[in-house]
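Hmm, what's this shape?
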Amino acid sequence: MSSPKQVRASHILIKHKGSRRKASWKDPEGRIITNTTKDSAVSHLKALRDDINSGNANFEDIASRYSDCNSAKRGGDLGPFGRGQMQKPFEEAAFALKVGEISDIVDTDSGVHIIKRTG
């Protein structure tokens, strides 16, 4: 089976002090982000992922509340994208998922993510 030309995905991004841009819609000054270690960002994301996978939380609700990406306003939806449009680790993870599947922690220059493939 050949891989699709495009996928559609949503994500939850948690930024940390190693992130490329240390500001977000919910932390415009970057005060929280610059004080967040990568380890604590990862453990926060793992806890959110566990809540989603156990059915205690909805991916879109969690994304709109916790994601540091502007896509939070759309429940984390990034829309469709093709190869070469996202950072490599993100792209590889998104294309490897089946529709409806949620990734493990994905580390990029932007921060740490969990990705849900939606199409």
Observations:
- The chain has a mean pLDDT of 96.
- The CA atoms of residues 21 and 110 lie 7 Å apart.
- The longest helix spans residues 38-53.
- Strands lie at 6-14, 77-82, 106-108, 111-117.
